[in-house]
Amino acid sequence: MHVYLDKDIDLGLIRARRVAVIGYGNQGRAQALNLRDSGVEVTVALRAGSPRRHGAQSEGFEVVTAAEAAAECDVAILLAADEDHGRIYEEELAPHLRAGAAIGFAHGLSIRFGLIKPRADLDIFLVSPKGPGTALRRDFEAGSGLVSLFAVDQDASGGAEALALSYAGAIGSGRVGILPTSFAEECEADLFNESAVLWGTIPELIQAGFETLVEAGFAPEIAYFECLTEVKLIADLIYERGIAGMREAISNTAEFGALDGGPRIVTDATRAEMRRILAEVRDGRFVEKLLADAKAGYPRLRASREAARAHPIEAVRREILDLGGTT
Ligand SMILES: NC(=O)c1ccc[n+]([C@@H]2O[C@H](COP(=O)([O-])OP(=O)(O)OC[C@H]3O[C@@H](n4cnc5c(N)ncnc54)[C@H](OP(=O)(O)O)[C@@H]3O)[C@@H](O)[C@H]2O)c1
After folding, report:
1. Which of 26, 57, 183 is the best mutation target for the ligand 1 pocket, counting ligand atoms within 8 Å of the beta carbon and taking the most?
2. Nearest in space to 181 (alpha carbons), one of 194, 165, 196, 197
3. Where in the chain is the domain with CATH 3.40.50.720?
4. E-strand stretches of the chain
5. What is the mean pLDDT of residues 130-144?
6. Residues 253-296 pLDDT 10s
7. CA of 22 relative to ligand 1 center, distance in Å
8. Strands across the sheet with 123-129, in order?
9. 79 lines ligand 1 (CB under 6 A)
10. Which of 16, 33, 45, 239 has most Cβ atoms within 10 angstroms of its Cβ?
11. Is there an atom of ligand 1 within 6 Å of 22 CB?
């Protein structure tokens, strides 16, 4: 795979265009700030009553609505929640974007699953940073960047790929690497990971491990440090050395525990469930569930946030922080 870097990129392409960043949340704020620092002309678009308007204005951006931004821009970057993309495109972008404009995405969901059927004259590209906006901004300010994936779904102008790379460079990813993918590959792999590996499984494992120790009479504080705090240490080790390197860096006792216990938790049944999760992602059942929850006012998301806040592990965290400890 060819990994693109700043030397492969013409930053002038994005600098020559007016960019509208739609949304000023996790990704929107970071991308707008990085673009501006890279010499790109940026307008931020938010709903009229958005609580984030003031923040974006106080950080020096002109703030307009998505419809107003669409009429003025050459490139609209859609950084609203994925489930809102269809409505924003239909009501605010499609009627106003000038012929030959481009829409950029940070995640492939709304194109992959047909929430948006873009006009044929538009360039449609993806630049997906592999991390949250906070890290995208922090690393950029530190002179580095986050790896991004990029893809083109529709190349009406013949220049969509070069434009996507230019955009990725302007948010800082050309400093570390921009990897080619497709909307489908980025979207499906990302949704699978969110459900089955990082966001879905690791927190469940931490809570289950904590519950097992506390149920057996261990002090909650000890259970907390064992099952939660050490996650950061192992993540750092894996990031720096890989999984084999991590194994070499830990004690023989820890390594033996890993080989004895890990395969009993992640079993053939776990792998079979992972395949089912991937199938549900690919055939659209996962996105149907997401859209149904959004339409009903997010009852499942709200209940899950409430359950996470109410879990006893959070009380231990507050207690440790109150005592001046670090977590
Ligand atoms: N979060 C991540 O780490 C991450 C990483 C990679 C890719 N992505 C992708 O980036 C995109 C944005 O995700 P996010 O997490 O940054 O979302 P977010 O934090 O929920 O922010 C969404 C923003 O969109 C705004 N918005 C909603 N409706 C709008 C409208 N009609 N016009 C203009 N703005 C509108 C919201 O406005 P209000 O402030 O008024 O609510 C908010 O500022 C998604 O496609 C996501 O998959 C996210």
Report:
1. 26
2. 165
3. 6-181
4. 18-22, 41-45, 63-64, 75-78, 102-105, 123-129, 148-154, 178-180
5. 97
6. 999 999 999 999 999 999 999 999 999 999 999 999 999 999 99
7. 8
8. 63-64, 41-45, 18-22, 75-78, 102-105, 123-129, 148-154, 178-180
9. yes
10. 45
11. yes
Rounded to the nearest angstrom, the distance between the alpha carbon of 172 and the centre of ligand 1 is 19
Point out the least confidently predicted range of 44-48, 155-159, 229-233, 284-288: 229-233
Residue 279 DSSP SS3: helix
CB atoms within 10 A of CB 187: 26
CA of 248 to the centre of ligand 1 (A): 40
Evaluate: CB of 193 within 6 angstroms of ligand 1: no
pLDDT in tens, 16-64: 999 999 999 999 999 999 999 999 999 999 999 999 999 999 999 999 9
Residue 132 Cβ < 6 Å to ligand 1: yes
- The conformation of residue 45, written as its DSSP 8-state character, comes to E
Q: Yes or no: is domain 6-181 CATH 3.40.50.2020?
A: no
